Amino acid sequence: MLSDVPIAKLSREAPIGVFDSGVGGLSVLGEIRALLPQESLLYVADSGHVPYGEKSPEFIRERSQRIAEFLLGQGAKALVLACNTATAAAIAELRGRYPQLPIIGMEPAVKPAAAATQSGVVGVLATTGTLKSAKFAALLDRFANDVRVITQPCPGLVEQIEAGELDSEATRALLSGFVQPLLAEGCDTLILGCTHYPFIKPLLRQLLPASVSLIDTGAAVARQLQRVLAEQQLLALGSARPTQFWSSANCQQLEQVLPLLWGPAATVKPLGD
Asked: Where in the sequence numbering do the catalytic residues fall?
């Protein structure tokens, strides 16, 4: 089992493995690239099973384990679960299985949102799976005692972003229907509780008053990754190799949206199940 990989075999110049249910984790991958440009990166889009937010915790744990084993087989020195739903469902099990491996996850930014709000009303856009998770409930109990948090599940939004429809009329109509109830309740701070959602920030800005703050956690995850790698003396010292991509769905679909969501075009390889 790959869970037996000892920390001594992890190299500074080994790549960092990042995965998500689809293309959303590219928003986190971009933050990692910006903060740690010397690091080589591997990215798995499990687009054959997107969105995770509608799947059972057991299914998500099984997929996360398979992808973790694949990335470790590619020599990854650290894993980033660039998905709130996968983090909630699977990170504890993965950390138990690989206790010496740096494993970084996501969580909705309840604490900074509670500190930022002036009206005392915080909105959360997220998948159903994230909003139902015990991890999210614990965050509310810990950090949201003095504010009112209004949660809004966003069915269909991930699929629009997966298709590269970041500003289409269909996406605009869908998103408008999600944010209007939050604005009606006086929300002045909005948490983007899914890694797909930063890609529609420009559209959100058109739909929201300028006074509404948008908060996501991609940059914070990159900083946490940097801290953990530094503590374990695993920060790369050389130059990054080209980022490698895999998808469990149609590779051409990911190749088509990479220039829009990532920047450089790249070849995507199939992730076998």
From this structure: 83, 194
